[in-house]
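Justification of resources, computational component.

The compute hours requested in this renewal are based largely on the per-chain cost of generating structure records like the one below. Each record pairs the submitted sequence with a full structure-token output. That output is archived, and it is also reused by downstream analysis tasks.
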Amino acid sequence: MENEVEFYGMIAEKIGVSKASILLDLKEEEINLRDMIMAIYPELTAMTFQIAVNNELKESISKDDFGKTIAILPPFAGG
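The structure output for this chain reads:
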């Protein structure tokens, strides 16, 4: 199943895209999103980023998350 991935800020600038569709083949119970994203975009291995699935920070995705939007977020400061 395909999931939409949105890239923000310096992450989008680094890889040259702001949106992409990725095909998830869930043979395992869960997929580690960080490992998967870095395998697709190796230029991100040296960068710090967070991952959100439907606005919830997560590091993995399960069958229940198929079809939900995945966001790759650069570091941000709060205040």
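The chain has one domain: 2-73. The longest strand covers residues 2-7.
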